[in-house]
Amino acid sequence: MELLVKRAKRGDAKAFIELIEQNKLSMYRVAHGFLREEEDVADAMSETVLTCYEKIGALRQDTYFKTWMIRILINHCKDILKKQKRSISVEDIPEAEPQTAGNGDRKFRELIEPLREQDRSIFTLYYVYGLKVKEIAACMEMKENTVATRLKRGRETLRDELTANHVKGGQR
């Protein structure tokens, strides 16, 4: 990927398109996690592609292209939410899953549902996209210790939730 980034920085449009193609599913999943509405997801993704294309020369380390792009995407998602003056609640999550999401994605979303929205985003970036704590901290504009603490507390919350559900299921 670093070679494509270097070529894109030199103005190679084909290399840039290839970078976006390699990362479009990740972009979709992150944007969908924040916005849920397909039109909003498409807007955030297109704004992100445009911003990345215009500012790729400002990327300092080529190895962090994906992290940089996801951070831009998250910022665009936050902007869309601010403009609409709405927040996503659990009740707003549609029942039908997008065609790109597999059964595992749905189960994962159901599993992390008890967590706060921001913590769900951290869990998604960590467990679904494989980003490191340092990369998540950069994307979410948080300290690394904050991300690590939220992951730890989220795991504890989920463990307690699963234990409580298991006990309830066993008493029936």
Describe this entry's structure for a reader.
The chain is an all-alpha fold and 172 residues long. It has 2 domains: 1-88, RNA polymerase sigma factor, region 2, helix turn helix motif (Rna Polymerase Sigma Factor, Chain: A); 101-172, Orthogonal Bundle (Arc Repressor Mutant, subunit A), CATH 1.10.10.10. It has 8 helices and no strands. The protein has helices spanning 2-9, 13-35, 38-55, 65-84, 103-111, 117-128, 133-140, 144-171. Helix 1 packs across helix 2 (13-35) and helix 2 (13-35) packs across helix 4. The radius of gyration is 18 Å and the shape is elongated.
SSE blueprint and pairings:
Blueprint: H1 2-9, H2 13-35, H3 38-55, H4 65-84, H5 103-111, H6 117-128, H7 133-140, H8 144-171
List the defining traits of the structure above.
172 residues, mainly alpha, Rna Polymerase Sigma Factor, Chain: A, Arc Repressor Mutant, subunit A, 2 domains, 73% helix, 0% strand
Q: What's the architecture of the largest domain in CATH terms?
A: Orthogonal Bundle
Strand tally, please?
Answer: 0
Label the structural class: mainly alpha
The tally of domains stands at: 2
How would you name the CATH homologous superfamily of the largest domain?
RNA polymerase sigma factor, region 2, helix turn helix motif
Work out the strand percent. Answer: under 5%
* Mean pLDDT reading: 81
The separation of the N and C termini measures 53 Å
Question: Could you spell the SSE succession in H and E letters?
Answer: HHHHHHHH
Shape: elongated
The parts where pLDDT drops under 50 for at least 5 residues are 86-101
Total helix count? 8
